[in-house]
């Protein structure tokens, strides 16, 4: 589902994959999330992150592949590079105040952060509070999705995680550099691809309308993409 520049991904992970990931995570150590924060974020970031280990590096790679192979993400985001997700946990009282993510991020390699992603690893009924709230021109948008679903939003936006009142919130967060950096341009390209898909579903592939739209779609990407 795509709303403007927000991409809601469903079924990024199966129930079995979620179960296995949660089982490993439950046995793993967490460290203070401030370890990967800098500057002003140090004061407002209050969560925990999965400690580095070989097993956790494998989980992060697995999650990254699961996200990148999602066809809606491929169509709407046109990912060029992404960094291995951080698994974060918010226990009672933890939150992440209003902030802006770093424009450049990554440890082994650096990407420009065009899209921020939160992949939910546990169910909304397992914790009270803990909504991800993102500032938009139309006000705050609030997300608390089912396990296995992800919200992708432009990293240009201020956002926060509300205090967890009870229970535990478990998510994986990552950032994507897109072939097209501007969210509005990506949205226009995605809309064109939606109409192309609709024409194909209505058995109108290779009609004049379809070819013209395909040409427009390809040329918009050619005009805006940086590779
Ligand atoms: O936990 C989330 O949903 C988002 C966390 C966040 O904003 C961040 O790590 O920069
Ligand atoms: Fe953030």
From TrEMBL:
The keyword Iron applies. Keywords: Dioxygenase, Iron, Metal-binding, Oxidoreductase, Vitamin C. Its cofactor is L-ascorbate. It is an enzyme of class 1 (oxidoreductase). One of its GO terms (biological process) is intracellular iron ion homeostasis. Residues 81-178 form the Fe2OG dioxygenase domain. InterPro entries: Oxoglu/Fe-dep_dioxygenase_dom, PKHD_C, PKHD_hydroxylase, Pro_4_hyd_alph, Pro_4_hyd_alph_FE2OG_OXY. GO terms for molecular function: 2-oxoglutarate-dependent dioxygenase activity; iron ion binding; L-ascorbic acid binding. Its EC number is 1.14.11.-. PANTHER family: PKHD-TYPE HYDROXYLASE YBIX. This is PKHD-type hydroxylase. The lineage of its organism: Bacteria, Pseudomonadati, Bacteroidota, Cytophagia, Cytophagales.
